[in-house]
């Protein structure tokens, strides 16, 4: 009988998913790549959550993840996002589910804007320190590490689901 161990398994899976999301964010910052292994850890760790949900809610979470993957694949085809971002977004959607999806999107959007502003401020600082004979380009030259924003939003959703953040 596994039912008595479900809360412990869910806590361990949540911690594993958070650690994987932190790793994804770090590698996205450092290398602008997100490892498939990290994405698989996020996805497979969600199995503990999916088994703890009512079947209809688990199916809705899987359907949401598939819809996110299909939409993300279209965005990837138009070169709007990277392939690792799409996979991480879909894997994280398994944890988010339909009940927290709006919170996830809001946090994802705010984190993306904050990252873009930090990158612009950093580039502006670099432009001020460049010798006057050089003229660097304006705007963002490096791709936005969307994996960081996905990780932040995913961690918030996991913590809310675990009732660790206020308002849960």
Describe this structure in words.
The protein has 168 residues and is mainly alpha-helical. The protein has one domain. 74% of the residues lie in helices and 0% in strands. The radius of gyration is 18 Å and the shape is globular.
Question: What would a concise description of this structure say?
Answer:
By secondary structure, this protein is an all-alpha fold.
Radius of gyration (CA) equals 18 Å
Discrete helix count: 6
Biggest beta sheet attributes: none
The overall number of domains is: 1
Helix and strand succession? HHHHHH
What's the overall geometry? globular
Task: Kindly estimate the percentage of residues that lie in beta strands according to DSSP.
Answer: under 5%
**Through-space gap between termini:** 29 Å
State the helical fraction: over 70%
- What is the β-strand count? 0
List keywords for this structure.
single chain; 168 residues; mainly alpha; 0% strand; 6 helices; globular
Topology (elements, then pairings):
Layout: H1 6-31, H2 36-52, H3 55-77, H4 83-96, H5 101-129, H6 146-161
